[in-house]
């Protein structure tokens, strides 16, 4: 089973499974294809996180393949340039891309096929062309005069491709061929690294060869909490995954299942839990190699119960503070195979088109994740050499009684913990199917403090999808929420539900995007 946001990517993963590959091989193949067909969202210029279930070892593995700031990039250097914040569409927002290292670590530890084999479908379509869908046409937007290196690759005629056009990316085919032949060494010690560093030097970036040569991805332990008989798994910081665990811990104090799905009473509790958790997120989440994070306390049931008591079930809060500790653009995919392996993977170049710099005709844009560093020396996410920036992208996973049940993710930047929590509640509290859980109308709260230093100034506002009923809008407004309508800010979901004896998989794909779930 393969679930992605693009049919060609789902088919690439299925083709690998049919050739004898496993879920890990299929995930890499699908991710590589998404780097071709959704270049504004992902690609080898970005970072990657994954949660994998190994059928052989019967356990979950977490992978953090995010890159770090250049060694010669610091607050002092930024101040010398007169910067108050790091500009997003700038070489100064670059951190070392981690995607290629993530692919290789997954393939070497769990894969059955070579990188050459799993990258072959993407190389083929990069050379021969792929058709542009209506949704991708709408996203293929930028000013070529403001992003000349991006335009050389993605608007060679000066105009975006039209719906139905075949688009080719020979530069990306070359990048994938180098990875297929030399592995991640090509990206971090070889030709690709050399070309990116030379490009950085010409364009005012801070990269050195040592920044790439010293890069490592890491196997990490996923964090978890229990929620009404299920265990919910996310990755710990430098990302925001544990915000999902915190929100669900708080919501477990309320009888969500007795409420009408999508009602004002239901969504009010979600919004209020989000407000509380995002203040903690802004205060405590960072790169654990640089700051100690009170992880166990943040995701403890005792702390959640204290926070839950701060929620008025009938009134929106105006003043939310973090707890006091003791002394978009992204793609998501899910894969599974006949052996029972499962992959929950998310990958991104951060904002649309990333930094909007394509290095030396390599066919991909470099990420701008370094924009999320703070230039405040007292901030936990302050810019420091070789530090990982805060990340919004999070893969999710559910188990029950030690057995794998559900791999899932919701794209959407800052929204993702809100999206994960809504999917889990839809599944567990309301009994929706995996497909229905992703199709339900969503809500997003804006206005919380951020992990990059911005502080909230009021209680924020709530954006609702248009098909949420008027009674819910009126009810939320009556509780004191500022309510707005919105389109396109609610992420895109994929998921695979598993049943055993006999082994069966049920795929789900969000109708908000082009994707599909395919099995064979």
Q: What is the helix tally?
A: 18
What's the overall average pLDDT, rounded? 96
| Poorly predicted runs of 5 or more residues | none
CATH topology name of the domain at 220-329 and 392-518, in short, is Glutamine Phosphoribosylpyrophosphate, subunit 1, domain 1
Strand count, sense and closure of the main sheet? 7 strands, antiparallel
Oligomer: single chain
CATH superfamily of the domain at 220-329 and 392-518: Gamma-glutamyltranspeptidase, small (S) subunit
- Strand arrangement within the widest β-sheet reads 6-3-2-10-9-1-18
- Examine the secondary-structure arrangement and name the CATH architecture of the domain at 220-329 and 392-518: 4-Layer Sandwich
Number of strands: 18
Instruction: Identify the CATH class of the domain at 220-329 and 392-518.
Output: Alpha Beta
Please give the share of residues in helix.
Answer: 25-40%
General shape: globular
Give the C-alpha Rg: 22 Å
Summarize the structure.
With 520 residues, the chain is of the alpha+beta class. Helix content is 34%, strand content 17%. It is globular.
Spell out the key features of this protein.
about 525 residues, Glutamine Phosphoribosylpyrophosphate, subunit 1, domain 1, 18 strands, alpha+beta, 6-stranded antiparallel sheet, 18 helices
């Amino acid at each position: 089973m393969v679930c992605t946001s693009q049919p060609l990517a789902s088919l690439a993963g299925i083709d690998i499974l049919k050739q004898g590959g496993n879920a890990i091989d299929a995930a890499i193949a699908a991710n590589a294809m998404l780097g071709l067909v959704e270049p504004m969202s992902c690609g080898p210029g970005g970072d990657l996180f994954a949660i994998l279930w190994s059928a052989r070892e019967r356990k979950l593995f977490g992978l953090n393949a995010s890159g770090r700031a250049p060694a010669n990039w610091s607050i002092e250097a930024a101040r010398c340039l007169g910067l108050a914040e790091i500009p997003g569409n700038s070489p100064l927002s670059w951190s070392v891309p981690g995607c290629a290292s993530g692919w290789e670590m997954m393939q070497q530890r769990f894969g059955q096929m070579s990188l050459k084999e799993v990258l072959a479908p993407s190389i083929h379509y990069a050379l021969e062309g792929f058709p542009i869908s209506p949704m991708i046409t709408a996203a293929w937007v930028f000013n070529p005069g403001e992003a000349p290196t991006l335009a050389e690759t993605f608007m060679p005629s000066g105009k975006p491709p039209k719906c139905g056009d075949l688009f080719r990316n020979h530069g990306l085919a070359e990048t994938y061929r180098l990875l297929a032949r030399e592995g991640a060494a090509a990206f971090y010690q070889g030709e690709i690294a050399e070309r990116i560093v030379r490009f950085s030097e010409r364009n005012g970036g801070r990269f050195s060869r040592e920044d790439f040569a010293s890069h490592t991805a890491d196997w990490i332990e996923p964090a978890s909490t229990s929620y009404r008989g299920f265990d919910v798994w996310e990755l710990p910081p430098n990302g925001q995954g544990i915000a999902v665990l915190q929100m669900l811990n708080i919501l477990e104090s309320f009888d969500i299942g007795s409420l009408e799905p999508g009602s004002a009473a239901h969504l009010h509790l979600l919004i209020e839990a989000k407000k509380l958790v995002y203040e903690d997120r802004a205060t405590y989440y960072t790169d654990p190699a640089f700051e100690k994070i009170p992880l166990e306390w943040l995701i403890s049931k005792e702390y959640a119960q204290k926070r839950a008591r701060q929620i008025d079930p009938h009134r929106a809060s105006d003043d939310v503070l973090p707890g006091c500790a003791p002394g978009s653009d992204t793609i998501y995919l899910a894969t599974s195979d006949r052996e029972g392996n499962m992959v929950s993977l998310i990958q991104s170049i951060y904002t649309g088109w990333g930094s909007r710099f394509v290095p030396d005709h390599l066919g991909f844009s470099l990420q701008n994740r370094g924009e999320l560093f703070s230039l405040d020396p007292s901030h936990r996410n302050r810019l420091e050499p070789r530090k990982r920036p805060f990340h919004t992208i999070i893969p999710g996973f559910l188990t029950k009684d030690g057995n794998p049940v559900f791999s899932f993710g919701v794209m959407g930047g800052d929204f993702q913990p809100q999206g994960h929590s809504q999917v889990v509640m839809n599944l567990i509290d309301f009994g929706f199917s995996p497909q229905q859980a992703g199709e339900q109308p969503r809500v997003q709260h804006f206005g919380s403090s951020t992990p990059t230093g911005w502080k909230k100034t009021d209680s924020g506002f709530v954006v609702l999808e248009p098909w949420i009923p008027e009674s819910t809008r009126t009810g939320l407004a009556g509780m004191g929420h500022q309510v707005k309508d919105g389109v396109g800010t609610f992420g895109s979901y994929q998921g695979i539900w598993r049943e055993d004896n006999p082994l069966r998989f049920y795929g789900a794909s969000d109708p908000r995007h082009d994707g599909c779930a395919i099995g064979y």
